[in-house]
């Protein structure tokens, strides 16, 4: 009888774990709930604790924080009674994830520290590496850079010793983030280059492209535009090879900005056209691309093409009610029309531009905020960062409270440099 129940329990657990790995958390929860009923019939505490932990994991992923916390605590109590230290460590790590979901970072750090402390010496070292990594990310959120650096190094050392090169590369990126935040630019570059070397040797192009992006972004922020250009060209080539067209559009758009800084307008126009060609949406992102393209063409004195693209941008800005950007587009169209000798039409666009610019500066502030939030939600972090900075400038001029905007800038800056955040997805093969 018990053998049949155990077999059915294993089958349900396996199905739940498949869905958990695929990110289908509701289905995983459903199977874990069914298996938990069988686990209770078996009356084997260690099985119930294991089941509860996975059930709670599926719930925390869905934002069911209270249910997840209850399950992890119950699993911890069972493992403590059994003196099952591996189970205790895993339940503590689960409770740390609950604290993170509640934005209780000190509590999360304490749970992770305890999970590491009780982790058995004879248990898999790579799982311990992941616990160090998770703790390091909590320390990073707290901006406790010394502790973050120490824990990331411990995690990376374990990955190196036990041959998990992907983890070693990802941890080098996280270390670079910590070093960069401490203004240790050369050390950050060194870790990023190490990460690139590992991913290149492993022929892991998706991880490699992310590492190069971080390196390029640092070079761009440090105004090392020539090196940023070289890095970003590699990014574009890799995304083209991977056929990730949305990323191709984003990377070529940013490359065009770098080329503009280098005054290479011809190549910048080429990459902007490519960015537009592969862009799949008719929205503000497309409008910004047309606007930038028109402005670059005006610099090249190709006023006919500039007018055509700026008018496409204006249509999109008008559609989405973005008066500030619409006014900018109208003004540039007016100047291009003047160069083409179309004086009457030029004057009409000057009037349109004036009307758009007459909106109060507070509306401009609101527009920038909405654009920033829009692009943040679309994970177009470079655009989001640009608009948050503009919002900050206007807010400072108007004497508006800036704390929330500054926090948003810090949040987005982290996301730009840590776009493929080191997570349990990287550990599927452990």
TrEMBL record:
Positions annotated as TPR repeat: 9-42, 89-122
GO cellular component, one term: cytoplasm
InterPro entries associated with the record: Bac_ResReg_Asp_Phosphatase, TPR-like_helical_dom_sf, TPR_rpt
Subcellular location: Cytoplasm
SUPFAM superfamilies documented for this protein: TPR-like
Recorded superkingdom: Bacteria
Annotated keywords: Cytoplasm, Repeat, TPR repeat
Family that this chain belongs to: Belongs to the Rap family.
Official protein name in the record: Uncharacterized protein
Species for this entry: Desulfitobacterium metallireducens DSM 15288
UniProt lineage: Bacteria, Bacillati, Bacillota, Clostridia, Eubacteriales
């Amino acid at each position: 009888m018990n053998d049949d129940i155990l077999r059915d329990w294993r089958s349900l657990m396996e199905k739940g774990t498949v869905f958990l790995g695929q990110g289908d958390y509701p289905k995983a929860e459903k199977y874990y709930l069914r298996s938990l009923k069988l686990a209770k019939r078996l009356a084997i505490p260690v099985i119930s604790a294991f089941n509860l932990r996975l059930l709670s994991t599926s719930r925390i992923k869905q934002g069911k924080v209270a249910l997840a916390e209850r399950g992890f605590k119950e699993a911890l109590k069972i493992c403590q009674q059994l003196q099952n230290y591996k189970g205790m460590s895993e339940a503590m790590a689960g409770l740390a994830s609950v604290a993170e979901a509640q934005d209780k970072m000190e509590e999360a750090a304490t749970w992770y520290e305890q999970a590491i402390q009780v982790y058995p010496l004879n248990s898999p070292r790579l799982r311990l590496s992941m616990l160090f990594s998770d703790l390091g990310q909590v320390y990073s959120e707290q901006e406790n850079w010394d502790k973050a650096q120490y824990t990331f190094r411990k995690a990376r050392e374990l990955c190196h010793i036990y041959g998990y090169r992907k983890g070693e590369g990802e941890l080098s990126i996280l270390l670079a983030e910590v070093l960069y935040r401490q203004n240790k630019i050369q050390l950050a570059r060194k870790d990023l280059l190490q990460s690139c070397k590992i991913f290149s040797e492993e022929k892991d192009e998706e991880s490699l492209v992310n590492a190069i992006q971080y390196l390029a972004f640092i070079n761009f922020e440090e105004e090392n535009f020539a090196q940023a250009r070289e890095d970003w060209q590699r990014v574009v080539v890799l995304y083209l090879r991977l056929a990730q067209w949305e990323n191709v559009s984003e990377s070529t758009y940013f490359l065009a900005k770098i080329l503009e800084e280098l005054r290479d307008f011809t190549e910048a126009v080429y990459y902007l056209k490519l960015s537009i060609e592969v862009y799949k949406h008719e929205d503000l992102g497309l409008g910004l691309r047309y606007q930038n393209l028109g402005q670059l063409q005006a610099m090249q004195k190709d006023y006919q093409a500039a007018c055509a693209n700026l008018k496409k941008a204006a249509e999109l800005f008008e559609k989405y009610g973005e008066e500030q950007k619409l006014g900018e587009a109208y003004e540039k169209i007016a100047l291009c029309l003047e160069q083409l000798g179309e004086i009457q039409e030029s004057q009409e666009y000057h009037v349109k531009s004036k009307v758009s610019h007459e909106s109060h500066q507070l509306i401009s502030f609101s527009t920038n905020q909405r654009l920033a939030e829009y692009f943040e939600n679309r994970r177009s972090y470079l655009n989001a960062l640009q608009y948050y900075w503009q919002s900050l400038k206007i807010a400072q001029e108007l004497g508006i409270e800036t704390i929330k905007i500054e926090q948003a800038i810090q949040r987005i800056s982290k996301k730009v440099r840590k776009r493929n955040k080191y997570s349990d997805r990287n550990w599927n093969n452990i």
